[in-house]
């Protein structure tokens, strides 16, 4: 037996014309050099550690239905080889605690249609496979398949089918490019995967994780015809991902509506530094899961983020050019939103898709929110309980905030240039603290000179209870309607428009008008009551009320009385 053997196909006295003969005769730990040529054989390594190095163009092929390379219960190093499978079997097969280290090789899988699919590299039976600086081409089966084993792939190019990881296996991926994986790039089931600098171009799902633990960093996924990262019953962290042009299948089949990142079935997921754009479908969706998002940018998608029955924490979200909702939260408890910019949403004009939609959710905490530029509403919240918005700015939308059957707290909120009401509540309990509404009706008239519905009030409270402090409403005509058994109390209230109270009760403490030319009009009808304490008792107002309503104030002079007026636009 020898420590080194050279295999070649020339030489009259050459003893080693097949690799298998050299494997049989080499000492454990020895090295076999394979010179250029085509070697038609299957090579079996069993119980003996061997290194095989190709010199030149050394090609190994199999002419039977067996693996080209089989490794059992030993460590084999393969370097600089072309290994090609032309029959229905694997190219490299590792089992029985075998270890295969593949470096600078070209591996090609079986390429003819067959009832069974054969991965290029198969690892099972608690084996270990390490692949580095190599090219793997899968024609009909997966590029790599690992079950109950370990596999690492570094600095490789994969073409065709992807990587399957199953049954308690571990996969490590570093600096890998995969082109056009037919169904998936990586598919992990009941396993652990650690992926970094992974690029997937074309094909199906880039990464599919089921009942697994996964860490994915530096992902680039472009031109997927399906979703990109699919997560179910798993613990997953994704950092630094760029996702562009996905779910093109929806252009052919409208029933295909999966978002780019669907998260389901009690998964725990952290997404950080994610850029996702350009899709006829949604960006991110999760249900019955726990998700943390930090620095997520979404652009040119059908929907932004949709979540239901989940625990969510969102920080630093940007969503632009969204056809429907930019952010939708349904049936959630204690969601947290810290810093979000929602712009140009609701572009589907057939329906009103608010930028921020909240339904049947409680204990929402949202702060530092900017919502701008849309024909749809800014915020729509209904059937929700104990929800706080703090430091929010809304500009250039339809209705700024619409709240229905809701317990809502707005602190330090500014609304301007709304095409309709800046705030509309219906059957809601509302607390306002530092609330600014201005240039709303003026904006609508300027934006559409033919719009004659300028009597729509800027702020409407219907069947609502309100406690408000530090309020400023400066609109050109009708500032506020308080209607249908509403009860409101204002501390520090400044207004430049008119106020209408219908079948409701209102208390104004520290009331100040800001009209430069005309006095504000207060209109009371249908058994309404207003008690107003003005900062300046010399303030001039005009009063219109019916016999069933009462008005009391600290004014030194009685307000000028007008004929009864209904400021609301009639149909």
Plain-language structure description:
With 571 residues, this protein is mainly beta. Among the domains are: 1-161, Pectate Lyase C-like (3 Solenoid); 417-571. It has 2 helices and 48 strands. An 8-stranded parallel barrel has the order 4-6-9-12-15-13-10-7. Strand 1 (2-7), helix 1 (19-25) and strand 2 form a beta-alpha-beta unit. The longest helix has 8 residues, at 440-447. The chain is rod-shaped. This is Right handed beta helix domain-containing protein.
How many helices in DSSP terms? 2
Oligomeric organization of the protein chains = single chain
Q: What is the CATH C level class of the domain at 1-161, in words?
A: Mainly Beta
Q: In this structure, how is the largest beta sheet organized?
A: 8 strands, parallel, barrel
Determine the CATH superfamily of the domain at 1-161: Single-stranded right-handed beta-helix, Pectin lyase-like
List keywords for this structure.
2 helices, 3% helix, 571 residues, mainly beta, Pectate Lyase C-like
Summarize, please.
This is Right handed beta helix domain-containing protein. The chain contains two helices and 48 strands.
Protein topology:
Layout lengths: L1 E6 L11 H7 E15 L2 E4 L3 E13 L6 E4 L2 E5 L2 E4 L6 E4 L3 E5 L2 E3 L12 E3 L4 E5 L2 E3 L6 E4 L2 E10 L3 E4 L3 E10 L4 E6 L2 E10 L3 E6 L2 E10 L6 E4 L2 E10 L16 E4 L3 E10 L6 E4 L2 E12 L3 E4 L2 E12 L4 E4 L5 E8 L12 E4 L5 E8 L6 E17 L5 E16 L6 E4 L2 E10 L1 H8 L11 E4 L2 E10 L3 E6 L3 E9 L2 E5 L2 E9 L6 E6 L3 E6 L6 E5 L4 E4 L6 E2 L10
Parallel strand pairs: 1-2, 2-4, 3-5, 4-6, 4-7, 5-8, 6-9, 7-10, 8-11, 9-12, 10-13, 11-14, 12-15, 13-15, 14-16, 15-17, 16-18, 17-19, 18-20, 19-21, 20-22, 21-23, 22-24, 23-25, 24-26, 25-27, 26-28, 27-29, 28-30, 29-31, 30-32, 31-33, 32-34, 33-34, 34-35, 35-36, 35-37, 36-38, 37-39, 38-40, ...
């Amino acid at each position: 037996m020898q420590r080194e053997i050279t295999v070649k196909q020339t030489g009259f006295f050459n003893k080693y014309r097949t690799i298998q003969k050299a494997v049989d005769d080499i000492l454990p730990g020895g090295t076999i050099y394979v010179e250029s040529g085509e070697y038609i054989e299957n090579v079996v390594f069993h119980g003996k550690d061997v290194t095989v190095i190709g010199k030149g163009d050394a090609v190994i092929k199999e002419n039977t239905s067996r693996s080209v390379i089989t490794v059992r219960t030993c460590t084999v190093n393969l370097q600089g080889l072309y290994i090609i499978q032309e029959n229905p079997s694997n190219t490299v097969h590792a089992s029985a605690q075998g270890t295969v280290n593949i470096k600078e090789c070209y591996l090609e899988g079986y390429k003819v249609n067959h009832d069974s699919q054969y991965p290029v590299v198969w690892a099972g039976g608690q084996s270990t496979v390490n692949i580095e600086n190599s090219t793997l081409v899968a024609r009909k089966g997966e590029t790599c398949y690992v079950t109950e084993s370990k596999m690492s792939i570094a600095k490789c190019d994969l073409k065709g089918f992807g990587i399957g990881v199953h049954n308690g296996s571990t996969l490590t991926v570093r600096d890998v490019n995969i082109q056009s994986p037919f169904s998936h790039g990586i598919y992990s089931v009941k396993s652990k995967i650690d992926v970094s600098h992974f690029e997937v171009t074309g094909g199906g799902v880039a990464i599919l994780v089921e009942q697994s633990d996964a860490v994915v960093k530096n992902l680039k996924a472009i031109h997927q015809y399906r979703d990109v990262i699919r997560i179910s019953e798993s613990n997953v962290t994704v950092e630094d991902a760029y996702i562009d042009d996905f779910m093109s299948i929806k252009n052919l089949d409208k029933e295909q509506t999966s978002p780019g990142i669907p998260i389901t079935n009690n998964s725990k997921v952290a997404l950080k530094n994610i850029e996702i754009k350009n899709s006829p479908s949604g960006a991110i969706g999760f249900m019955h899961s726990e998700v943390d998002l930090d620095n997520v940018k979404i652009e040119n998608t059908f929907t932004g983020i949709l979540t239901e029955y989940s625990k969510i924490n969102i920080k630093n979200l940007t969503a632009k050019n969204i056809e429907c909702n930019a952010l939708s939260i349904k049936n959630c408890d204690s969601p947290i939103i810290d810093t979000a910019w929602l712009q140009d949403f609701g572009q589907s004009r057939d329906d009103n898709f608010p930028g921020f939609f909240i339904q049947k959710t409680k204990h929402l905490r949202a702060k530092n929110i900017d919502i701008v530029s849309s024909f749809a509403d800014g915020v729509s919240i209904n059937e929700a309980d104990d929800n706080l918005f703090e430091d929010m700015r809304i500009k250039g939308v339809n209705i700024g905030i619409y709240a229905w059957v809701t317990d809502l707290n707005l602190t330090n909120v500014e609304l301007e240039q709304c095409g309709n009401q800046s705030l509309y509540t219906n059957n809601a309990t509302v607390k306002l603290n530092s609330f600014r509404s201005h240039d709303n009706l003026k904006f609508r008239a300027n934006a559409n000179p033919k719009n004659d519905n300028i009597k729509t009030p800027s702020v409407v409270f219907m069947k609502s209870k309100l406690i408000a402090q530090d309020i400023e409403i400066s609109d050109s005509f009708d500032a506020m309607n308080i209607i249908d058994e509403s009860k409101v109390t204002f501390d520090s209230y400044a207004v430049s428009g008119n106020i209408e109270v219908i079948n409701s009760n209102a208390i104004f403490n520290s009331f100040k008008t800001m009209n430069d030319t005309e006095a504000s009009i207060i209109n009371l009808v249908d058994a309404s009551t207003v008690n107003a304490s003005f900062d300046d008792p010399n303030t001039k107002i005009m009063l219109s009320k019916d016999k069933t309503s009462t008005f009391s104030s600290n004014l030194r002079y009685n307000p000028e009385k007008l004929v009864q007026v209904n400021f609301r636009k009639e149909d």
